[in-house]
Amino acid sequence: MLDWNGRAVPVARSKGGVKAVSHSYDNLIRTGISAWPPPEIVQKLYKSRQSRAFDGKELEIATSGLGYYCDLQSLHSEDAITWSVFGTIARSPQNILETWLRDLFRLIDLPDSHTDNAEIFLWRRIPHPDTLVPGGPEIDVGITTSNTVILAEAKWLSGIGAAQGKAKDKDQIQLRGEFLAKYGAGIFPDRPHKVVLGISLLPNAFKDITPKGVSLRTTSWQHLSTLPSHPLVDELTRYVEWKMLNSKMTRKSG
């Protein structure tokens, strides 16, 4: 199969019809990243239980790159597109990052959010909002500036995880909102704007049940990939279109 840049890459197909490249790196934008792989990607290169979805020749292809199958290989991977959009801009010079954040804040209607002292991080865990134990929810994307903190939940075709929390009665958006509502003032005392951001390919993927003092914003990968200030906007546009074309779009789970 040809990738978003027209390069031929080996592809396996699962028993359910989901496509996966033979090596995780073939599912990630790497343009401009000189030190490869970055630590964020290395931590995601774990062996997946989803290898059981492949058999025979397809399993051989799926395990030929790393010697095992990794979730980053799937064209349904939310982590792969999260890196390709946010990981690349996070490594851009500060002035480019802040210009892109101005576009992002306009897109998601945060007119009072500043972009100075901006930082983006991927896949960090926060203390659990119900118990404060370590190893709580994994934040797909975190964005902090001088007056704003954003915790983002990234989806592709999957739905929001429910049965979360100590009593299994909350969802992923609610947990992130509760963390900011309960502890945001103490942890981020100089950032009055506290936001949970939902990103998905599917419309209406998120329900606003964030607590008082926390805002929910939503957007799509299609909109994010075409923000003109991203230095890789042309490649990102091709990448998202490629993923959409090759994803099993009737599927509602990742």
Automatic annotation (TrEMBL):
<protein>
    <submittedName>
        <fullName>Uncharacterized protein</fullName>
    </submittedName>
</protein>
